[in-house]
Each structure stands twice: as C-alpha cells, then as structure tokens.
Amino acid sequence: MTDTPLLQVSGLTRYFDVSKPWLNRVLEREEKQFLTAAADVDFEIKRGETFALVGESGSGKSTIAKMIVGLVDPSRGRILFDGQEMRFEQGAAMRQLRRRFQMIFQDPFASLNPRWRVGSIIAEPIRTFGIASGADINREVGRLLEVVGLSAADAEKFPHEFSGGQRQRIAIARALSSKPEFIVCDEPTSALDVSVQAQILNLMRDLQDEFGLTYLLISHDLSVVRHMANRIGVLYLGRLVEEADAKRLFTEPQHPYTRMLLDAVPDLALSGRRRKPVTGEIPNPITPPSGCTFHPRCPLVVDICKQQVPAVRTTPTGRAACHLLEESALSSS
Amino acid sequence: MSAPIEKPSEKTPLLSVRDLIVEFPTRRGTLRALDRVSFDIAEGEVLGMVGESGAGKSLTGAAIIGLLEPPGRIAGGEIWLRGQRIDNLPREKMRRIRGRRIGMVFQDPLTSLNPLYTVAQQLIETIRTHMDVSDAEARKRAVALLDRVGIPAAARRIDDYPHHFSGGMRQRVVIALALCAEPELVLADEPTTALDVSVQAQIIDVLKEICAERGASVMLITHDMGVIAETADRVAVLYAGRVAEIGPVRDVIQAAEHPYTAGLMGSIPTLTQTAARLTQIPGSMPRLNAIPRGCAFNPRCPKVFDRCRTDRPELIDRDNGRHVSCWLYDSATQKVAHD
Ligand SMILES: Nc1ncnc2c1ncn2[C@@H]1O[C@H](COP(=O)(O)OP(=O)(O)OP(=O)(O)O)[C@@H](O)[C@H]1O
Ligand SMILES: Nc1ncnc2c1ncn2[C@@H]1O[C@H](COP(=O)(O)OP(=O)(O)OP(=O)(O)O)[C@@H](O)[C@H]1O
Ligand code: SF4
Ligand code: SF4
Ligand SMILES: [Mg+2]
Ligand SMILES: [Mg+2]
Hints:
The complex is a heterodimer. By secondary structure, chain A is of the alpha/beta class.
C-alpha cells in the first residue's frame, strides 16, 4: 500500500491563450495563438523522496508546480495524490487532501503578507484547517519558529524586520504548519545568497529526515538539484525530455539536451573539462520548432527529428525522449 | 601596513585601486559601503570579483568608471589607470575614458543599448566618437566585430533595432559595443546573470576570447563562483565592503585562507561533490549601519578570537600571490599561537 507513489502526474498539459485582443486580431487577420507551457508531462514521486524538475527559463517548471497545488488548472492530464485524483472544484474531500501538501515560492518577499505579524502568517493554515485552537495555536507557532531555526519571540515581528534567508525560513514554517506530507518548492533558494542558500538547503534536508517529507523541488540550478534530489526530470519547452536517478543523470546523461546543459554549466570543481560550444538559444514557445523541439540546436539531429515528436523510451538510467535512443534501442535488440 | 599590495619591483598594473572608500550620506549618518578596498588588475588579466548581495561589487565597478550615483561618493583612496590617476578627473575627461579606455557590460543589455537607434548607428557613433575613422570604415569595423561576437548575418542584422534581438544576442551586441573603441579594460557587472544557462557559457566564452585577442584586461563582477572558476585568473572576495581575500582563482577556491572564503566555498553545491550537508556559515552579512567593530566577519567566524573583536585586520601579503585580511595570518598572532 505504501508502494503507491505519493504523487502521480500523467499527461499533464497546459495551454495559455496569448492571442492579441479580439479587435486587433480581426483587424490584423490573425488567428488565436496558444502557448504550450507544459505538454504531456508524466512523472511519479515516491514517499520520502525528492523529485526535482530542472530546465531553463520558460521551460514550464512553475506552470507544472502550480497545476499540482491547484493554482492553475490543467488543460489536460491527471494528478493523483496518494492514489486520489485531485479535482480542485470539489469541496470538503479536497480540503482534507489539500492540507496534506503545501508550497514554498521563490520570492520570500512577495509570499509573506507585509502587514501581518509573523505569528499570524504562520498560524493561518493552522486556523484554516482547524488543526489547533486558542492558546495551542501560539504554542505551535513558537515551536515551528524554533524548528526552522528562529525564535518563538519572532512571532511578534513583521516580515520586513527579517533578512531574505530568515523570511524563507518563515515561509517554510508556514508551509509546515498544516503538517503536510508533501511540499512543492519552486526555486526556494534562487533569491538567496549562496551562504544563506546552504542554510536553507540543509534545513530542508533536516526537516525531510525528521518528518518524512516528500519534496517536488524546482530549480534551474543543476548543482542544487544534484545535491538535493533522488530523481531528476529535465524539461525543455514544456516537455520532459529525460528523467533519471539524480547522480546518474550527471555521469550518464542520455538526452542530447541534458548533455548540452551539463557542458554549459560553469562549475566550481575546476575539472579543467573543455566545454563543447553550445549553440543557439531557446526558441519562441509560441511557435516551437516541429518534431523534436530541440532539433535546431541539437548536434546529433537527423531527418526524422524535424518531423516527429520522439516517444519516451526507457534508458539505463530512467527514460528519455529522443529518436536516437529509439534507434539504438531498436538496433541493439 | 597600509597599501599592502604595493610591490615596487613589479611593473605598473593596468588598474590599481588603493584604499577606496565609498560613502552614502543619509539622514541618520554616513553609511560606508566600501571601506578601504585595494586591488590591482594586471595587463591582460581577468580579475573576478565575487561576494554576496550587498558586498559592494557593483559600487567598486561604478567608482572605477566614475558612475557612482549621488549621494554616493568617493570619500577616500585612489584609482589609477596605467599610471594615471582617474578618481578625481573632471566629469568630461572621465566621460572620454569611459567607452574609450574602459568598456562596460552590464547585467541588463538594455541599459547599454538605446532602443531608438539601430545597432549600426550605436556602434558607428561610438567608434567615431573615440577614433578618427570614416563612416564607411567604422561600419566595416562594426560588422566585423558583430560577426566576431557571434551574430549570424552581421552585415544585415546590424541595421536592426535592439529589440529585434534575443536576450543572448543583445548581450553579444553589448560586448561588441564595449569593445569597439578597443579599450584597455572591460568592466563586466553580472554580464550573464539575466541569461539562460545554455546561453551564459556562450557569452562568457565570447567575452573572454575577444578580450584575450585584443589584450584587454577584464574585471568580471558576479556572484556566480562557477563562472569565476572557469573564467578568471585571480579573484577578489568582498565581504561587507572590504576585501577578504585576493589570489589566484584555483588557490582561493581549493584552499581558501580567509575563514569567510572557506565557508563560502563549502556552502556552494557542485556537480561532483558527495557531502550530504553543505558547509553552513551562521547568520548573514551585516547591513551597512551595523558592521561590527574589528573584523567585519567576526560574529560569524568559527575561528574568531579576542583581537578580531577590537582591531580591523588589513590585507596581509602571504607571499604566495595571495592577500588575506585576517588576524590568523598576522605574524604577531602566529607567534602567539606557536608559543
Ligand atoms: N499566465 C500565463 N499566460 C501566458 N503565458 C504564460 C503564463 N504563465 C506562464 N506562461 C508561459 O509559459 C511558459 C512556461 O512558463 P513557466 O513560468 O512555467 O516557466 P519556468 O520554467 O517556471 O521559468 P522560470 O525559470 O523563468 O521561472 C513560458 O513561456 C511562459 O511565458
Ligand atoms: N544609493 C544608495 N544608498 C544607500 N546605500 C546604497 C546605495 N546604493 C548601494 N548601497 C549599498 O551599498 C552596498 C553595496 O552595494 P552594491 O550594489 O555594490 O552590492 P553588490 O555587491 O553589487 O550586490 P548585488 O550582488 O546584490 O548586486 C549595499 O549594502 C547597498 O545597500
Ligand atoms: S530527437 Fe533528434 S533533435 Fe531531438 S534530441 Fe534526439 S537527436 Fe536531437
Ligand atoms: S580576523 Fe578573526 S574574525 Fe576575522 S576572519 Fe580572521 S579569525 Fe575570523
Ligand atoms: Mg518559474
Ligand atoms: Mg551588483
């Protein structure tokens, strides 16, 4: 029974209507335009694990996160939490499910209401979900502040009295207050300095060990993701191009885009590796390239890449979507 | 003990910054944002400047090119460009040095590009302002440079406006603009921070290669240690407006001497490390109105001792190409420690 993945996502797709206003369209004789922010995304997250999504700006990371926590409706696809389908329009049952997951955002400045005291900010989910009442709430808030390395007395203060790292700690305390099992973290440390990032990443690790938390971690930083995740999914223009065991993604990248990313990332390790020159930039997502959307930049491109979207194939380390992997799979069998 | 970097035997560096102090007068007193910053950049060298947000990286750059925004002002120290003092020049003279002798690349390419003019107009104007060449010759040079920074079909694209280019292409145009008057120094403040990872590497490569070809030195400001590791010859680490450590990039990364640098390097996850936990420096960098007495790092330092709380350590020449401002490396301290 505990073998059911805590989260299962299948065929998750989201289009955004990015058309000009109706009148302009009529005058300029333009069609409606849609942008595909996420296309047929599938993955599972096991209990107690950290699954990471990486990808460059605009690859659809936040859109996927928001669909999972119910801030954006999917255009298509399913999300199962602990085996139950998430439908955000449903009332009471959804509320019960809802308290079992939380979200932490990139910007610790924007995600905390500046007019509320820290205590009220953290207490809000406790009240909403009726987890405690009366004096117990204050006691719980004090405890949570200490769990994240602040002090109970900080409940009286306002967010602006804290540094960026401390505010992210407050956001984490708030996320923990409904005693969730699953936390979606969208770039939780991107706005922070590296020394503060280390504090927050260590804290997230400790909390995971202590409370058995499951994380979906979203980041554009490959080294952060490698440090934190058990499994990693790589996104390109809204599609999951590769999914693999975290460490093996770096030693045995399968998809040409993953390889290119690994070559491009500057690293402290001073390995002296000579980078392969990376070519091209991310295309406009409104008019993505045909077939494999990576084909204009891919050093290994072949004819079929321009016509057909590659299917997802099992690889030695996970799975990936590339025509070449299909070929080698076919020829070696 | 002041101006510890001077070594009379060596030839004049391209750029010398000595005891630079930058202050902001405010209603509640004067804030000192840079406090006696000293470093050199040699001919043809790439100096990386790293530090956390608010450490004073951009202010150091702005002071060098004479673009401090009021009320910020240089309140002390000297800046020398190839033996010429430039921190006290009249505005007009400084304006000519900028662009001609010091090229600039900033985080947002649009701050350097005028949206109302084509790339050709901007490049040709800059070239002709600083060099005595004909319009046709300037255009020829501009096209060659755009081609060199990797703009495809440069001869045609040069007549486009900045907004016709993608973010990465715009930053290439800015690099061309920074280099078109053949400057001796290029100051790049977070040149790739706004770009995607896959494009960052391309831009850094272009910047580094072209500067090397033309013998221009580079001051590369970034908070990304990975970029520094792969690009810079030496690195200066700033903390709370002071230089904590300067040295060859490999030494500083792999065997930092200053406790702050050591903590910083350990706190950065890498693509190869295996440690389960990252090194954690407690607390965060102080604000300008709350910089502690003595060593600015002392409340967070794992090796703090009495003297650190009262006396400020100057940069100490370690005789291994490094300078470190930490009492641990003071000869008097070391004698005590060895007794
Ligand atoms: N509300 C919206 N309306 C129109 N387009 C949108 C909307 N939200 C996102 N998009 C587009 O969808 C694509 C994916 O965006 P998303 O924010 O998910 O990317 P991301 O991977 O989180 O990027 P980043 O690293 O910049 O945060 C982008 O092209 C974006 O412009
Ligand atoms: N106009 C100003 N008035 C008061 N203080 C200022 C002003 N401009 C900058 N500062 C302060 O000077 C210090 C150094 O700023 P600077 O912009 O050089 O930091 P930085 O190292 O470039 O940081 P970042 O990585 O965030 O760009 C900061 O503490 C900043 O708050
Ligand atoms: S499908 Fe073709 S273009 Fe796409 S990644 Fe594979 S080889 Fe490259
Ligand atoms: S001077 Fe003292 S407090 Fe400062 S870094 Fe050195 S040991 Fe630490
Ligand atoms: Mg995002
Ligand atoms: Mg800056």
